Amino acid sequence: MNIFLDLLQVIAWICIFSGGILVIIGALGSLRFPDFWSRLHAASVTDSGGVILLLLGMGIHSGFNLITFKLLLIGVFLFITGPTSSHAVANAAWVSGIKPLRNKHKKPGIDK
Amino acid sequence: MLRSIFTAIFLFALWYLMSGIDKTLTLVLGAGSSVFAVWIVRRMDEASNFKCLSVHLRPIEFGKYIFWVLAEIAKSNWTVIKIVLSPNMDIKQKMYEVPFTQKSDLGQAVFANTITLTPGTITVEVEADHFLVHGLSYSFDDHAALAEMDRRVSKTEGIVDL
Amino acid sequence: MISTIPHFVFLIALLMLFIAMVLVLLRLYKGPTLYDRVLSTNSFGTQTVLFIGVLGFLCERPDFLDIALLYALINFVSTIAILKFFRYRAIGDILIEREAKK
Description:
The complex is a heterotrimer of chains A (112), B (162) and C (102). Chain A is mainly alpha-helical.
């Protein structure tokens, strides 16, 4: 039983660690990518993968009590609002006329 | 009326799980605040004659769908991570149209949210019978994958009476 | 305070989130368009929610999760309000017409 709990703790640490790495990768992608449309996808790595892994790790670490419920609530809320705000940004940019880059060596075709 | 009672009970359960205090005075105050909130909402409904949102989802199918979506998120996260970390980012981005077959607004919202939630595809615009989707690394397989997702979302949808 | 392995793991996660927040702030500073900036503000908010949660676990005061939940709510509403303001130049009640179709 004790070994099982220790194993669960190790899984929680791995989840938290890899969630942190995913968040960094998302931020790095949003810094590296050449134009707005590709940056949207990099930000969505943080919104889905990083959030799932970090909240899952914290939930396993805390055991099963009211804290787990709060983490679940935060997770569900971020899962509904994250895509909604991504879609809102994308739709506003599309309506304002920012088009995706065809060639990746070209400067972004942005009209100010 | 039944709907209001269920809403009040749901709000009180949410309140209790958020606070976790079980003194009598606090519980009474919590119950009073949830009933008050429902009363305000009913008054607002009468003022605006808004048609209330009806949820038509099959719970078991939706649970299965959530697990399938988690697997999809893992796969597409891996694809995007490879693109971010590769030295020459080979981005083949493209806007394409994805038809949807859901009848209810909620089903369409679930499908569009799932498309946006999986990294690599983002719903940009909602038209009458299709979504405009922006893909990061476009290939012909994307159409088949999104059609599969569409089929699964339609399966979670219950009987819709429009 | 940092004595056991869980503390160490949470501290590392906190540092990672901090680095990610700095990177996103760089994009906020550089971002050529308004939408890049809104996107990085939104992503900064998500990272702040996670940061507050991890900080609560590091200090062994998980009550911080209430603040994280509140921050998630405020972040979503503020993103939508900013986008609505820059699209229609008003936050109040407006007649929405899809200008894309016209």
